[in-house]
């Protein structure tokens, strides 16, 4: 899961980034609101964590800009504004959830998983694709109900394709999803991960779309 965090408090921001990374998520952290819409254009994100008290523009304005631009990204407002008026305003302005600071890290992660699940139109916390089953909370992928040992990036790649069935992603998009903006990786890193997945699940688990990229195939 790739998550954008918009938070101006350095200590809190570092803490949230650390929590997300420990959960095998890929966070991108911005400390101001003006660049959010531009940063989201052309990039693949699963969710946005948005503070309201930003130094340049209010988080409500960021939320307004996103929804006026028809952005469908799930938004979790994370703020110290705990009064009912602001909570109602946030949800009515297009936020999908509202969490008050201070917060429990486990609750933050659970709310993120729920946001992404609902945005994909799923009710079940688990994702089933043929003989494959993904448990996002446990970070497990099962093949015919047997947990398969995977490296982190292999797991993340297959999990991402499973949660976006039918969609085709370019190599560059998948590099961003797995490693983030600033990562320096080998040019064939996605091909290597795909090769390893095919060895474990069969040659059709990830399909190559010629001159475009990759999508989830059929395992087994």
Automatic annotation (TrEMBL):
Gene3D superfamilies: 3.40.50.2300, 6.10.250.690, Winged helix-like DNA-binding domain superfamily/Winged helix DNA-binding domain. InterPro entries: CheY-like_superfamily, OmpR/PhoB-type_DNA-bd, Sig_transdc_resp-reg_C-effctor, Sig_transdc_resp-reg_receiver, WalR-like, WH-like_DNA-bd_sf. Keywords: DNA-binding, Phosphoprotein, Transcription, Transcription regulation. SUPFAM superfamilies: C-terminal effector domain of the bipartite response regulators (SSF46894), CheY-like (SSF52172). The keyword Transcription regulation applies. This is DNA-binding response regulator. GO terms for biological process: regulation of DNA-templated transcription. GO terms for molecular function: phosphorelay response regulator activity; transcription cis-regulatory region binding. Residues 124-218 form the OmpR/PhoB-type domain. The modification 4-aspartylphosphate is found at residue 51. One of its GO terms (cellular component) is cytosol.
